[in-house]
Design brief:
The protein is of the alpha/beta class. Helices cover 34% and strands 16% of the residues.
Length: 190
Amino acid sequence: MNTHFGIDYGSKLAGTTAICYNIGQDLFIINSEKKKDSDKFIGEAIQELSPTAIYLDAPLSIPLAFYGKGENFHYRKCDRETSAMSPMFLGGLTARAMSLKKRHSEYIFHECYPSYFIREVIHAKEFYNKKETIPNEQIVGMIQDQMKFRIPVLESYHQLDAVICWVSGLRHVNGEHVTLGDEDEGVIIV
């Protein structure tokens, strides 16, 4: 299979990790299960589907200040440019994401940020309300308009974020993406 993954990376045992991939023009989504290791779930999906790249909604690096370069121990340049949370605030999630990347180092990982895509690419912030149970149909339609792939019925915002990571990957593959941050410290692909 020749596809990339878009992954919304959730808590390890919460059942909130979602992976989006395509077969032909159809997108598919698989979810981790509650009380089961989501990192193991991702590893099994990687082994089974062999993605060409992985676009992950989680920090894959920490600020350069930790390596003696710069003074900002809280935010990377890409976090400041996207108004993202500090990888240090996300602590355990950041550590797990960096570990996942290292464990599967034969694959290419890219960091994504769905909220930035919603705000700055499709300008649909008013439709992106994670307090709702299922994603707003208008936002799904706006994302659908960005591509020629069919999106399945989405059951959660985790699935929507996985689709957005996948779309960011498609934009990257097609050279239509935006890269934010510093290559030495970490970049976000949108």
